[in-house]
Amino acid sequence: MNIDITRLKHGIMSSISLDENLDTTNVDLNNTGILDLKDIKIIGNITKDNMDNYMLDVKLSGIMVLPCSITLKPVDYEFSTEILGNIEEMLEEINEIHKKTENTIDIFPIIWENILMEIPIKVTSLDALNENISGDGWRLVTEDEEVKECNAFDKLKDLL
Fold this sequence. Notes:
This protein is of the alpha+beta class. Helices cover 20% and strands 36% of the residues. It is built from five helices and eight strands. The strands form three sheets. Strands 2-3-4-5 form a four-stranded antiparallel β-sheet. Strand 4 (54-67) and strand 5 (74-86) form a beta hairpin. The N and C termini lie far apart (72 Å). 9% of the residues are buried. The mean pLDDT is 84.
């Protein structure tokens, strides 16, 4: 996602407005846990401060399709985050190389890093909670259920 900063660099504009949909068709989702990305929207601006640093102030939102923790069926997960900071410092944090003399800035690595940080640990579909998940000699135990485990030391309590 290359942004032309020529006008900003020469002082013709004070900021560059961003209102774009991110095209995720060529994004490699392997090893991320994400099945698909939909409706990724970037709204904000890029400004230049007094020290010739380019500042990014955007709101990122969209839908991730993630596998359900119980059934592995696809689940839509809406996310939204704000990104605010120095573009050069953010690119250094994620080990991306940026040349200050260029007339374009690629903010995709920053956007991608923030999308990955929004992946939740666990997603459960509403259908999975209503399903009876059990098998031959086993059943799914949820956190809400109280389970009495057979403890070998319980028999010793009776002796005392």
